């Protein structure tokens, strides 16, 4: 807040693009707080849905939590770096269901040729991240939920060195370069912590005999077409809840 107030000098500028300084500061602060809420909740819903439809993944995730954290306390932020399999679950979730399946639009600044296509200067370009993340030329069994592909020591591992931060252009769930999502750290921190605490603290049962529907809905953040409904059963000491 102090930085914004010092940058937007009220005495020097009366209006910024038609808005007052206070309006811009309020809008910026609000955006910082709520901008990642929708994408984060959608990512967490997909992560839980994928884990619950793959019992072996759920077991491995809970075993890691029981080993690294124990069952006599709850997960803390300092534990996340040690939870390698949990991080792989999040990476694989964001590969299959990136927070924004289409990238932020870019504009070609000069005539060029991309993949054999002529692109004129001024053309608006959008990258289909959903398709990129499922390209069989890059990913083995691309439609399969396989966190092990991000682990070095197991049968997968072909993508072990890929990171979220846009250094690997075949895996860019948050975009890349100067236009990378500014909320990446907040989003990742929230998803890792929420997923870790849920898997650590509860066992899950689907409602009735219902199989979890993985159909994709429409929208900028590609939510599930149906809500995720499960029963939770505590698996830790009652004093921890």
UniProtKB/TrEMBL annotation:
Keywords: Heme, Iron, Membrane, Metal-binding, Monooxygenase, Oxidoreductase, Transmembrane, Transmembrane helix. It comes from the Eukaryota. The keyword Protease does not apply. It is a single-pass membrane protein. Transmembrane segments: none annotated. It is found in: Membrane. InterPro entries: Cyt_P450, Cyt_P450_CS, Cyt_P450_E_grp-I, Cyt_P450_sf, Plant_Cytochrome_P450_Monoox. GO terms for molecular function: heme binding; iron ion binding; monooxygenase activity; oxidoreductase activity, acting on paired donors, with incorporation or reduction of molecular oxygen. Heme binds at residue 181. GO terms for biological process: isoquinoline alkaloid biosynthetic process. Its cofactor is heme. Pathway: Alkaloid biosynthesis. PANTHER family: CYTOCHROME P450 (PTHR47947:SF26), CYTOCHROME P450 82C3-RELATED (PTHR47947). This is Cytochrome P450. It comes from Papaver nudicaule.
């Amino acid at each position: 807040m102090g930085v914004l107030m010092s940058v937007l000098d009220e005495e020097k500028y009366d209006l910024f693009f038609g808005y007052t300084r206070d309006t811009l500061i309020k809008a910026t602060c609000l955006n910082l707080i709520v901008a990642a809420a929708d994408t984060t909740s959608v990512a967490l819903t997909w992560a839980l849905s994928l884990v619950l439809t793959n019992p072996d993944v759920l077991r491995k995730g809970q075993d890691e939590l029981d080993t690294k954290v124990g069952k006599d306390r709850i997960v803390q932020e300092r534990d996340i770096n040690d939870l390698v399999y949990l991080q792989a679950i999040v990476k694989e979730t964001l590969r299959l269901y990136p927070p924004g399946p289409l990238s932020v639009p870019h504009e070609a600044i000069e005539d060029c040729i991309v993949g054999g296509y002529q692109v004129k200067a001024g053309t608006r370009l959008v990258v289909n991240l959903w398709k990129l993340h499922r390209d069989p030329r890059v990913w083995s069994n691309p439609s399969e939920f396989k966190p092990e592909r991000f682990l070095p020591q197991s049968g997968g591992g072909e993508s072990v060195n890929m990171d979220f931060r846009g250094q690997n252009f075949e895996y860019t769930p948050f975009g890349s370069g100067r236009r990378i999502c500014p909320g990446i750290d907040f989003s990742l921190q929230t998803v890792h912590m929420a997923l870790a605490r849920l898997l650590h603290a509860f066992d899950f049962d689907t409602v009735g005999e219902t199989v979890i529907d993985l159909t994709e809905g429409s929208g900028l953040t590609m939510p599930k077409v149906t809500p995720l409904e499960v029963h939770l059963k505590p698996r830790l000491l009652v004093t921890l809840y």
